[in-house]
Input
Amino acid sequence: MALGALWLLAGLLAARQAAVVLRLPPDERLTVLETWIGEDGVPHVSGSLYDGSAFTGTPFSGLALKPFARAAEQSLGVAWTLGTLLLVVALGLVVARSLPGPVSRSAKLLAAPVAISVTALSLPVRDTFTLGQTSVIPVLLVLLALLPRTSDRQSGLLVGLASALQPALLLFAVVQWLTGRRRAAGLAGGTFAVCTALAWAAMPRDSWTYWVHHIGGAGLGGAADGPTNQSLHGLLLRTGLEGPVELTLLAVLAGGVVVLGLRRAVCYAEDGQLLLSAAITGCVALAVSPTSWQHQQLWILLAAVGRVGGRRSDRPVWPVSVVLVMTLSPTALMPDIDPLGHIANNGPLLAALAAALVLPFLTRTSPYWDAPVETPTAERERSRLRCVPLLRFYRRPLTRPNLLLELMLIRVGYFVYSYIRGSAPDRRSLAEEHGRQIFALESRLRIDIEHWFNQIVADAPWLRDGMGWYYAKLHFFVPLTLLAWLYLVRPVAYRWARAPLGFATLFALIGFWLYPLAPPRLMPGLGFIDTTHGPQDLANPDFGALTKLSNQYAAIPSLHVGWSLWSGVVIAMVAPKLWIKLVGLMYPVLTTVVVVGTANHYLLDAVGGAVVVSSGFALQYALTGAARMPSADAHVTTVTRAEVGEVADATDTAATSGSGRTG
Output
């Protein structure tokens, strides 16, 4: 069932990618394939490859591309898109087959659809689909050259063809030479030379443009200092360096990256990790190329196969980091503020350099290769209900989760929350109609106190300013501070407490989507005063700059109240003193007073916030049976002291060996 579900997911994702491309207007899809634009956006095959700046491939790749462009001219890219889709599937199958052993047959069967799904979702492949690039082909050629049954002759020919499409991949011939496959290396170099010569004979003008005027493609495809050029050259240009100084520094850095990176690639190849060796070599090629555009960065994704860390809880950090970097935009990874924004904008290059030079990937001889240190867990929670817990296999971990992994997931989770909240329906008429429904219901229940209380707040400057500060500052500060304290002081309680918060936020997003609601401050003709944001022009449906920050009609349930209630419950359960527990319980009450007094929410919005938080705790109980927060963390140790020493020694050994033989 799991295998069938994974293949179904892979098929749906691949079909969606193809459908997204085919739904684009003709002049917006396959824009690189359509370097030669004719009428109605249909490609034609006359003229120079480099008349514009869109085409960045070698003359040989253009020579090989022309027949396919002719097919695209006849089918408007349908055949090309489906062919690219088949290449992605083939790539996923080859990756699954190339996993370092020992790997069971069932594991390889499960790995194939996972590899296809992740590859289809990655930014390089999405870019390839949209632009009509050929960058999947050289990656596939190199991986086919690594298969056990591939002879030296076949391997050399495949690497040579890949290098003719992307010259930096000649580094794979160097790795072949250093690993003793000198015949393959020679054939790779010869094949590259023959293909390049054929392209030069067929297209001398384009070959001169590519190899001489643009020096191996540099300057094609956009500005080299743009954020999409994830190479050392692009990074140095973005720092403001240029001219001889930049070129000298680039030569020194590129030389160091090539020497150290290829040395590590050879070590892992000799260790039997051919896929990881190929990924490291590809990352080196990306870093030292004059330009490394997004569609060429699949090598970074392949580096996720490397195993890092002696503890099982640390193993997901590297692959999750790589997948996030290669599937999400920089703003999803880090906020767009200095210096975090610069780090995120150079995320692919940093990941490539980390894989090529820094990370101490485990060797297959390491005792932690197949037997990492397990995370200690508690006994399964008992429940009075026979059907609880639904997750019978779940055991509560008795350690802190990996901090880096937690921070990444929190950031991505908040990005997804902001995106969905901002994308929820914000039709003004519907939201105002729902506002009238809420008013009518509160009137029948005789709890419609919002207008009366809002006028009191607006007429008292000290109350208005105090509530405005409270509303703007504490919504994120208190929950995040509480999570940080739990992580440091009560790690088992942290694991227990974070799940209901995530579930509650998810339920709130569903509410925002299904029931857009105008808050009191945006209801026209009712006399509410927006004491937090200032006067609003209700005749303007955009409401000024506020619309750029969030969906103004995501009012029910109130997450201000929901998150404060979660904080209050957690504080009441972990605080050692009674007065702190009482302060915690008063916090959601005070938050309700503030959101109603500032006209940001109705009273029923606060009730909705309480409902989603209660549902979050209930769902956690149903899934895990954990009805109570752990009362003590007396047994919280990641591993025994001896195990910690063994893991540290293994990591130090691996890191030291990285500059020597085993990486």
Remarks:
- The chain has two domains: 2-358, 428-624.
- Confidence is low (pLDDT under 50) at residues 34-45, 543-549, 633-663.
